[in-house]
Amino acid sequence: MKRILPIIIILLLLTPSFIFTVDERQQAIITELGEFKRAILEPGLHFKKPFVEKITRFEKRMLSTDAPPGQYLTLDKKRLVVDFLARWRIKDPLIFFKSVRNMFAANTRIEDIVYSELREELATHNINEVIAENRELIMDKVKEGSSAKLKEYGIELIDVRIKRADLPTEVQQSVFERMIAERQRISKRYRSEGEEESAKIRARTNKEKDIIIATSYAKSEKIKGEGDKIATQIYSDSYSKDPDFYEFWRKLEAYEKIIDENSVIFLPIDSYLFNLLKKQY
User: Fold this and answer.
1) Cα–Cα dist 65/107, whole Å
2) Alpha carbons 90 and 29: distance in angstroms, whole number
3) How many domains does the chain have?
4) Whole domain around residue 150: which residue ranges?
5) Residuewise pLDDT in 10s, the chain (281 residues)
6) Are 92 and 152 members of one domain?
7) What residues contact 142, with CB distance under 8 A and at least 6 apart?
8) Contacts of 91 (CB under 8 A, 6+ apart)
9) Domain shared by 50 and 72, yes or no
10) Predicted TM-score (pTM) of this structure
11) How many other CB atoms sit within 10 Å of the CB of residue 249?
C-alpha cells in the first residue's frame, strides 16, 4: 500500500498534463512544439501528450467588436462621425490561430476591414441616406464585403450595425443654427398662411352675417307690414260695424294709458271724460 500511494499521487499531479476538458462555450487546438496537430471542436474530456502538446482555447460564443468613432466622407461631401458594432465568431480556430492568434489582434483586424468597407460604401451615398433612408441596406453591403475578407482569418462576421452617426463637433453648431433658421422660416410661412386664411374666414363670416341680418330684417319688416295691414283691416271692420262703440273703446284705451291711481287731472266740464265720470257718480 505504501508503494502504491506515491504512484497515485504522481498520477494525480500529472493528470492535468495529459487530460483536459473543453466546455460547450469553447473550442481549442493542440500544437506540438508550435506545430498544429488537431482541433478540438466538441466539448468534453480529451487527452494530449504530456509536456509536449499544448492546448490553446478560443471562444465558441458570439463575440462583439465595438469600434471607436471615425470620420467618413459622404457622396455630397459631408463629414460624418460614425461608430459601428460588429458581431462575429471564430469559425476556424486553426486559421484564426495562424493569422491573428489572439483577441486583441482579431478586434484590430475587424476594425480595419469594416472601417475600410464602410468608408467606401458611405462615399457612394448622400448624408440623408446614411442617417435615415438606406442605413440598413448600406450596412448589409458593408457586412457582405467585410465577411469575404474576414474568412481569411477564420472569422465569421454575423452582423455589422451603426451605433451612432453624427456630425463632427466643430460643425455641429453651424448646422444646428441653419436648422433653427430653416425651422423659423417654415414656421413664419405657416403663420403667414394661417393669418391669411383666418382673414379670409373672418371676411366670409362677416359677409354671411350681414346677409343673414339683412335678410332677417327684410323678413321682419315684411311680417310687421302684413301684421299692421291685418290690424288696420280689423280696426276698419270693427269701426264700420259700430262707429260709436269703436270711438268709445279707443278713448277708454287712451285714458287707461295716461291715467293711473295717483294721477290728478283737471278737466273742463264739457269734456267727454268729465261727463262720463259725472254719470258714474
Assistant:
1) 6
2) 12
3) 3
4) 63-173
5) 556 666 555 555 555 566 778 888 888 888 887 777 788 888 888 777 777 788 888 999 999 999 998 888 888 888 888 889 999 999 999 899 888 988 899 999 999 999 999 999 988 888 888 877 678 888 899 999 999 999 999 999 999 998 888 777 666 666 677 778 888 888 888 888 888 888 889 988 888 888 888 888 888 888 888 888 887 777 777 667 767 676 777 777 776 776 666 767 666 766 666 666 655 54
6) yes
7) 114, 117, 118, 121, 160
8) 151, 154, 155, 156
9) no
10) 0.57
11) 13
Q: Exposed, middle or buried: residue 146 (CB in 10 Å: 0-12, 13-18, 19+)?
A: buried
In the block, residue with C-alpha cell 264700420: 240
- Domain boundary (126, 154, 173) is at 173
Assess contact for 75 and 39: CB atoms under 8 A: no
Strands 155-166 and 79-90 turn out to be antiparallel
Residue 216 resides in a domain? no
